[in-house]
Amino acid sequence: MKRCFAPTAHGMAISYREVKDDEIEAVVPILLQAEESESALRWSLAHLSDAVYRMDEDDAPVGAATMQWRDDPCELMELAIAPERHGQGLGKQFVAWLVEEARRRGKRQMLVGTANSSIGNIAFYQRCGFRMDHVRQDYFWYYRGKHYENGIQVCDMLVFRYDLVASDAKRKTSRR
Questions:
Q1: Which of 47, 62, 163, 164 is the residue whose CA sits 20 to 30 A from 70?
Q2: What pLDDT was estimated at residue 6?
Q3: What is the pTM of this model?
């Protein structure tokens, strides 16, 4: 599955495609930005993720994401953009493409989680249209020793939700 969008500010075409099993190693270095524990990332790839996606700019990888499609809501497990491409809107573009893919698959909601200490990610997902949903307490138990980010101990996962279809209550309100 390959889809191309309009050229970027650099004049290059962005495309998205599902990665085949024998291509996963090529995107692991990018995905390690989303899950810095390589053993946790590999466990997620083997047990949680149903699909791995690659975002290319003129056939060079600039981003990667993993999705769990088996349930509704579906869940964005990992999302990362190559460090040299941060701040250029690629992450938001990738999320928008994944949201549309979820709609194509008939999903009603999408979830994404990030650490309680990941201030940038918390703001990013809200800018992408996600809303806070719940907390998975003590989610990061597998970190050896205390782990800090932004001066905050990493403990819990904050889960955000994107409603892909309007709820009945919202539809009734919008008709008034």
A1: 62
A2: 44
A3: 0.87
